[in-house]
Task: inverse folding
């Protein structure tokens, strides 16, 4: 131990797994604080942004640094920290647990406007100009030099992009070595906000008949009429491809006007109005739950609560009361909700109740708005943050309560970059800040439910719907009785649709989008071909005309005869919402239908408009994917038809049954929320699957017990923990080879160290989505009995794995506790 001048530990904004240390110049020594951004030199580069993680004057014993050799910090970017210091341990945990570089973890947390980017500008030297004029450069070199001279701002990335020469970087390096090019680094904050956008407005009501009838033009015109206040040009183009062209023409003749307008964001624009709850006084059941949690809020003490409440049981009122309590204790609250296209009921209720102290963070915000909210939170303007998963990073400094609503929702898990789970990170943040966290759900994830059963979480239950409204009647339709041809609508569903239409009721037809994988099913007995080792449905591969297991890599030929009943009725199975819409329109022409899935509806505005139309009963039948299942009330819908439960049930995923149960329960929750009782029809070729039994009786516990038993037998989470290694790259051979090398390393590690005897490896196998954007994908899973073990093993694996020629051009993505295994 030795006393030295101040030292700062910095997370630099580069893909490094560790933080770096710097000496703090005298002038900065009293101003520097954790949570500020700084500029530092790294290697040969001088201007790299970074975040101060800690500062100290006494070197900790376990740290091997020589203060004399440290380089000084160049400058401070912020005088005031942009993150509370208490978030530093949280950032360290995120980086280590999710195997993500610490500086890039910080960059993920920060809103776009606070990210710092270094760009490198190229300049041609005297020497270079001379060589160009003398004509002594090679053809490629000449092109590089000319490109740099031509560009107004020749950053390396722009030059490379402009030239489009393979291996262009090599030539730039060579020219630099010859002294013909120099580089200049510059640093900027990434603040390119788009504040305005073009709107198109129809000037006249009458549209002069075009010489040639054009469907596109007619559609465009009707959209303009529907939006007399103007419509975003980009939105118009989305709906009518080619709109740019038409608008230009119409503008010339003065039929439309184009206006540049400021994009403002109204939190709940076009949204259905908030129903103010009839009573604010909690029921007795709610009261008991509030009491169970409240002392943890007021005393600030860590505990995870799992609030299991059936749909419509009044969880929102519990949240409201707890937030109220936190505010009275002068603490702040954070509410995490699933990411959906439209603000949820909960967001609206909180905004209505608490007003302008609520910050809302979600994907509908522009970067500018996100940045403003962040600043507001830092400055203490907001006391409550409601947000999708990234809301968990909000820089609240005095947090007293975290609520994660719909904790089972898969959208809480980020699918790229820092692959964090919003719920799990919320729990860790609560733990580090020593405060309670409430996980709410009508169908808790089995992970959370298991934790409650073993006493890690406290289980609280709201078993009844408010006003004792009855749960909808759920019926399972046996598709095997429909004959030997695949049909979309069973006779029973057609019957019920006719009945509902005659009564002027609204109908919801539902199909799970994620069930895209094609599998083989027997139309007579419902048998599905599965992997014998993994109990996962085998996926059909068109390219190779065979069936493959996406966990262990098992391959088998396609069969046409059913192995169970012997009939030649094994058929490929899988279709989409478009097909349903088409088929429906043929059968019921004249009904007002609307399809709602991510293909059909891209904008938030349009989405809101459709929901409004449903509420105003301008739509009879809504056809869609799980977008429909979340957080919305349609009082007029009395019939819900699940067109195929099998697409979800046969997902190549060990969670297939759990996902199906959650979806069906959620979809069923859409029926009969008004004053009329609802009916749900579920079509399936596997009517005796236990999922349906428990869905029909609305028996979560029964389902969880049975499913947990199976998971235990098959060694899947929550009884084990998984880390998925996804290997991708443009060369199929290389990708496969790297996946094999990693698997080989795993086997070696397990053999060498007795502590890892209970770790095992599944795969490598082709990922279900094998080829995405010209990148081949292989994956493998490391499985161990505990989170600690799977973490230790994977950290050891990664450090033993050296990058070399074999891995060039191949990306290895580590996904901890994977949810989407496609
Ligand atoms: Zn069969
Ligand atoms: Zn398998």
Result:
């Amino acid at each position: 131990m030795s006393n030295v001048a101040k030292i700062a530990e910095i997370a630099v904004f580069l893909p490094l797994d560790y933080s770096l240390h710097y000496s703090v110049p005298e002038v900065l020594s009293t101003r520097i604080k954790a949570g500020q951004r700084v500029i530092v030199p790294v290697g040969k580069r001088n201007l790299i942004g970074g975040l101060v993680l800690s500062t100290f004057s006494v070197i900790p014993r376990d740290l091997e640094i020589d203060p004399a050799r440290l380089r000084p910090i160049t400058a401070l970017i912020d005088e005031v920290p942009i993150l509370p210091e208490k978030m530093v341990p949280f950032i360290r945990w995120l980086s280590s647990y999710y195997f993500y570089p610490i500086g890039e973890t910080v960059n993920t947390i920060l809103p776009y406007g606070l990210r710092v980017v270094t760009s490198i500008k190229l300049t041609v030297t005297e020497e270079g100009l001379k060589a160009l004029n003398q004509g002594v450069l090679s053809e490629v070199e000449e092109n590089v030099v000319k490109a740099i001279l031509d560009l107004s701002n020749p950053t390396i990335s722009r030059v490379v992009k402009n030239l489009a020469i393979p291996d262009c970087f090599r030539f730039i390096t060579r020219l630099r070595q010859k002294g013909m090019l120099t580089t200049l680094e510059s640093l900027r904050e990434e603040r390119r906000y788009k504040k305005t956008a073009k709107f198109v407005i129809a000037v006249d009501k009458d549209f002069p008949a075009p010489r040639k009838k054009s469907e596109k033009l007619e559609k465009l015109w009707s959209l303009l009429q529907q939006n007399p206040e103007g419509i975003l040009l980009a939105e118009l183009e989305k709906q009518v491809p080619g709109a740019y062209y038409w608008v230009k023409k119409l503008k010339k003749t003065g039929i439309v006007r184009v206006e540049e307008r400021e994009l403002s964001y109204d939190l709940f624009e076009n949204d259905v109005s908030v129903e103010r709850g009839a009573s604010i006084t909690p029921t007795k059941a709610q009261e008991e739950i509030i009491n169970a949690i409240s002392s943890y809020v007021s005393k600030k003490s860590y505990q995870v609560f799992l609030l299991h409440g059936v749909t419509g049981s009044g969880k929102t009122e519990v949240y409201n009361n707890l937030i109220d309590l936190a505010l009275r204790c002068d603490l702040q609250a954070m509410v995490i909700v699933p990411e959906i296209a439209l603000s949820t009921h909960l967001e609206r209720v909180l905004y209505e109740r608490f007003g302008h102290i609520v910050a809302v963070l979600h994907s509908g915000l522009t970067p500018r708005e996100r940045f403003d909210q962040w600043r507001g939170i830092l400055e203490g303007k907001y006391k409550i943050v409601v947000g999708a998963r990234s809301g968990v990073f909000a820089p609240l400094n005095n947090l007293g309560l975290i609520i994660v609503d719909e904790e089972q929702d898969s959208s809480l898990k980020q699918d790229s970059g820092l692959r964090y789970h919003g719920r799990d990170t919320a729990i860790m943040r609560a733990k580090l800040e020593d405060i309670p966290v409430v996980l709410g759900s009508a169908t808790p994830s089995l992970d959370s439910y298991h934790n409650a059963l073993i006493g890690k979480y406290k289980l609280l239950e709201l078993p009844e719907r408010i006003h004792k409204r009855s749960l909808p009647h759920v019926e399972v339709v046996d598709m095997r009785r429909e004959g030997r041809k695949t049909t979309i609508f069973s006779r029973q569903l057609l019957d019920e649709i006719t009945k509902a239409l005659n009564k002027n009721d609204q109908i919801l037809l539902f199909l799970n989008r994620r069930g895209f994988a094609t599998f083989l099913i027997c139309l007579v007995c419902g048998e599905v071909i599965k992997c014998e080792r993994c109990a996962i449905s085998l996926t059909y591969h068109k390219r190779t005309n065979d069936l493959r297991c996406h966990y262990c890599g098992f391959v088998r030929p396609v069969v046409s005869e059913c192995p169970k009943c012997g009939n030649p009725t094994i058929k490929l199975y899988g279709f989409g919402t478009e097909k349903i819409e088409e088929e429906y329109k043929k059968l019921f022409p004249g009904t007002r239908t609307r399809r709602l899935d991510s293909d059909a509806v891209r904008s938030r505005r349009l989405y809101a408009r459709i929901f409004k139309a449903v509420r105003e009963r301008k739509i009879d039948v809504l056809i869609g994917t799980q977008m429909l299942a979340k957080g919305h009330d349609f009082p007029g819908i009395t019939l819900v038809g699940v067109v195929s439960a099998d697409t979800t049930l046969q997902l190549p995923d060990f969670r297939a049954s759990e996902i199906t149960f959650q979806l069906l329960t959620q979809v069923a929750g859409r029926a009969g929320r008004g004053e009329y009782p609802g009916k749900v029809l579920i079509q399936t070729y596997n009517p005796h699957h236990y999922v349906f039994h428990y869905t029909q009786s609305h028996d979560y516990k029964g389902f969880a017990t049975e499913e947990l038993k199976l998971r235990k037998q098959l060694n899947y989470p929550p009884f084990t923990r998984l880390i998925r290694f996804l290997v991708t790259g443009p060369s199929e051979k290389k990708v496969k080879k790297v996946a094999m090398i990693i698997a080989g390393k795993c086997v070696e590690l397990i053999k060498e160290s007795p502590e890892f005897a209970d770790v095992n490896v599944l795969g490598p196998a082709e990922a279900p989505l094998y080829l995405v954007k010209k990148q081949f994908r292989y994956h493998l899973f490391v499985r161990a009995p505990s989170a600690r073990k799977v973490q230790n093993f994977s950290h050891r694996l990664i450090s033993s794995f050296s990058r070399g020629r074999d891995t060039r051009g191949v990306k290895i993505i580590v996904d901890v506790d994977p949810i989407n295994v496609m």
